[in-house]
Amino acid sequence: MNNRQVTKFAIYAIAVLCAALIKEFVITYVKKHIHEEGYLLVVIDMLVVILIFAPAFALVSKYTKKLSKAYLKTSKKVSSSKNGNLLGFIVAIIILFILFAYIRHNINVIQDLKTMMR
Question: Would the pTM of this model clear 0.70, i.e. be above it?
């Protein structure tokens, strides 16, 4: 797997995780304001998934080539070509992990780390 393919995978992974977080925000908002349970909520959830993921994948496929070139240039400035890409991907995954833990699972990673450090 060459560097460009790894970068393309990283961009897709980050886009999918971001889209999932956006969906979670929207569904949480809908659940607070719509007091319906059952089938209506299922339909709304399905529509939200379509409205968020379809444009996300279209946007990613359209701009993947441009983003990967810019990402490679920026990563090369930070460090060597492979390490820079890896570092950027790891930072993005860590941020998304913290957001997923907090938003989807009600786990405060930062507070847990502070507790462990003491």
Answer: no
- For the stretch 22-40, pLDDT in tens is 878 877 877 777 766 677 7
> CA distances (Å), 73 to each of 62, 84, 99, in order?
19, 9, 27
pLDDT in tens, 71-91: 666 766 666 556 677 777 788
- d(CA 68, CA 66) in angstroms, rounded, equals 6
Alpha-carbon gap, residue 85 to 10, rounded angstroms? 9
CB-CB contact of 14 with 99 (8 Å): no
Considering all CA atoms of the chain, what is the largest pairwise distance in Å, rounded to the nearest integer?
53
* C-alpha–C-alpha distance, residues 77 and 73, integer Å: 6
The C-alpha atoms of residue 87 and residue 104 are separated, in whole angstroms, by 25
What residue type is 23 in one-letter code? Answer: K
Q: What is the mean pLDDT of residues 100-109?
A: 86
CB–CB of 37/116 below 8 Å?
A: no
- Cβ count near 71 (within 10 Å): 20
